[in-house]
């Protein structure tokens, strides 16, 4: 049987699928370089947390598939995988509703000052109710940056909560957003100055790294809120700290940070107007079941020699490995 190494266990529904046709090995590590002997025995790797570069791929001569339980592949050296004939399996669409709901939950939590109010109340400070930090959402404008499947679903939920929606995505025609009843902004800074809430939904790429920094936060409306359920690397966290601590931004709520697992000594955690969840937006029971099963099915299909359609590097099938 093929050996599949997982950085961490999948949701049990996915583990059951994998175990039907493979021997599974759990590294319980976000740095597989510390598990080199396990890596060398793997026909497939399922990467939940951590990175895989060319060095690991080349050290693993049996490796035939890398799988990501989601759609983000910024932690995989895609050029190396394609060059080596290794498909990178993804699970598109399986978690979009869960992530969009989490973004909406963070919007409510930060605009209603839920966390600070809870902590102060638990400490005996009932007077926190008189801070008047909460706002109503009806009639406010939310900016959706990144209008892929998750961005679209988040926009739809926001609209159903009576928020006006503006969209910025240079890779999406204006007609797509406008056809759904949203305002399209061709200029990012035009969007920043118009919105009360900003929700980020773009991938981590060299172009989006620290895309939101001092200039972008300064361009946002005074008193605006920021929500990030995309990737931590797209935010300059030092600049975000300044924007929050000076009061220019009223609050920020994120599911992702630059360092994961998140470092509790980050200055952001000292702020009452900052909320973080541990990259859990996609980890609902329903989403975890769908994602884990789709990931496992794709992993096994590739190991059987099938051209699984849900891969992040479809050009890999032109590799000589796949011409046999």
Automatic annotation (TrEMBL):
Keyword Kinase belongs to the record: no
Residue intervals of the D-isomer specific 2-hydroxyacid dehydrogenase catalytic domain: 4-313
TM regions (residue ranges): none
Name of a matching Pfam family: 2-Hacid_dh
Keywords: NAD, Oxidoreductase
Keyword Zinc: no
Database matches in SUPFAM superfamilies: Formate/glycerate dehydrogenase catalytic domain-like, NAD(P)-binding Rossmann-fold domains
Single annotated GO MF: oxidoreductase activity, acting on the CH-OH group of donors, NAD or NADP as acceptor
Residue ranges annotated for the D-isomer specific 2-hydroxyacid dehydrogenase NAD-binding domain, each copy included: 104-281
Gene3D superfamilies on file: NAD(P)-binding Rossmann-like Domain
Family the UniProt entry places it in: Belongs to the D-isomer specific 2-hydroxyacid dehydrogenase family.
PANTHER family attached to this UniProt entry: FORMATE DEHYDROGENASE 1
Stated name of the protein: D-3-phosphoglycerate dehydrogenase
């Amino acid at each position: 049987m093929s050996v599949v190494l997982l950085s961490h266990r999948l949701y049990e529904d996915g583990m059951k699928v994998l175990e039907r046709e493979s021997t599974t090995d759990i590294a319980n590590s976000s740095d597989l370089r510390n598990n080199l002997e396990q890596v060398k025995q793997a026909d497939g790797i399922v990467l939940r947390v951590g990175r895989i570069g060319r060095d690991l791929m080349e050290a693993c001569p049996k490796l035939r598939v890398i799988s990501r339980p989601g759609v983000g592949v910024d932690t995989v050296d895609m050029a190396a995988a394609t060059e080596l004939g290794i498909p990178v399996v993804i699970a598109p669409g399986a978690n979009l509703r869960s992530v969009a709901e989490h973004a909406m939950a963070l919007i409510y939590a930060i605009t209603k000052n839920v966390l600070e109010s809870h902590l102060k109340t638990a400490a005996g400070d009932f007077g926190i109710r008189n801070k008047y930090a909460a706002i109503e959402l009806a009639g406010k404008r939310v900016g959706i940056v990144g209008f892929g499947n998750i961005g679209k679903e988040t926009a739809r939920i926001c609209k159903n909560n009576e928020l006006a929606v503006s969209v910025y995505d240079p890779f999406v025609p204006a007609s797509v957003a406008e056809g759904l009843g949203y305002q399209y902004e061709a200029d990012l800074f035009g969007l920043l100055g118009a919105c009360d809430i900003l929700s980020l939904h773009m991938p981590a790429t060299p172009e989006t790294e620290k895309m939101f920094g001092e200039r972008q936060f300064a361009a946002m409306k005074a008193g605006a809120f920021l929500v990030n359920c995309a990737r931590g690397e797209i935010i300059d966290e030092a600049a975000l700290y300044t924007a929050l601590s000076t009061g220019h931004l009223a609050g920020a709520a994120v599911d992702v940070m630059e360092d994961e697992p998140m470092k509790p000594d980050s200055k952001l955690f000292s702020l009452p107007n900052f909320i973080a969840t541990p990259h859990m937006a996609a980890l609902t029971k329903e989403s975890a079941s769908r994602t884990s099963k789709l990931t496992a099915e794709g992993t096994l299909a590739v190991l059987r020699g099938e051209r699984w359609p849900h891969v992040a590097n479809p050009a890999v099938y032109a590799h000589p490995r796949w011409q046999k």
